Amino acid sequence: MARRVRFNKMPDTDSQAPKWMVTFADFTLLILVFFILLFSISQVDQQKFESISQSFRNNGIFDQSDSVIPFDEEWLEEEIREDQELESLYAEINSFLDSNDLGDMAEASQTDRGVVIVLQEQVLFNSGEADILPEAIPLLEGIGPLLEGIPNFVRIEGHTDNRPIQTEVYPSNWELSGARASSVVRYFINEHSLSADRFSAVGYGDTKPVAPNDGPANWALNRRVEIVILNQYLNEGEGS
């Protein structure tokens, strides 16, 4: 009589696990793969990328592309040239300030918006007034020719500290800061024959302090006029 061999049936793991768990595991795996892909993309070697990009140019790949957003090499070169011009302007301004020992009167920096020249209130105006002081003329005279050599928009911004002001001429810091910005704009337009279309004057009052309004030293820092020479790809409405 033949002997029957009995095999034990393996447990059905799928039937024991809830269906939602299988779906969740698949979803988790997909998320993991997605982040691994993002990480690998972020580690692109810049030199290799430039080499591949140049190879595509040499073979006319970009010229034959049907992409909705075409590769515009001229636009890229123009943007690089504009950045270089701003860097050169920034260096010129710093050189002018250093050579004329004006570092205590003004400070220049380069930001995403462009080149920013910060002039403290005591350099330009008497307290509570918006008429440019005679002592400030040499400083503005040095900046004016630099603006003549470039086509960029220039945004003049007036700022005050948070102490209230109320006079017959300036009911609040809003009017005072706007009047001071306008005075600087008028100077450049009248004295250097610059086009008014290139300028805008904005008064921010005490809404954009650079230091806490907690004493004389910081109040003085917040009372300032900023000359913002905007990047070419920004117009005067986008430079805020």
List descriptors.
single chain; 240 residues; alpha+beta; 60s Ribosomal Protein L30, Chain: A; 9 helices
Descriptive overview:
The model has no long low-confidence stretch (mean pLDDT 80). Helix 8 (173-192) links the parallel strand 3 and strand 4 (199-203). The chain has a domain at 78-230: 60s Ribosomal Protein L30, Chain: A (2-Layer Sandwich). It is extended, with a radius of gyration of 31 Å. The protein has helices at residues 13-16, 19-42, 46-58, 61-64, 73-99, 121-124, 137-148, 173-192, 216-222, and strands at residues 106-110, 114-120, 154-159, 199-203, 224-230. The protein is α+β, with helices and mostly antiparallel strands. The chain is 48% helix and 12% strand. It has a 5-stranded mixed sheet with strand order 1-2-5-3-4.
Write a concise synopsis of the structure shown.
By secondary structure, this protein is an alpha+beta fold.
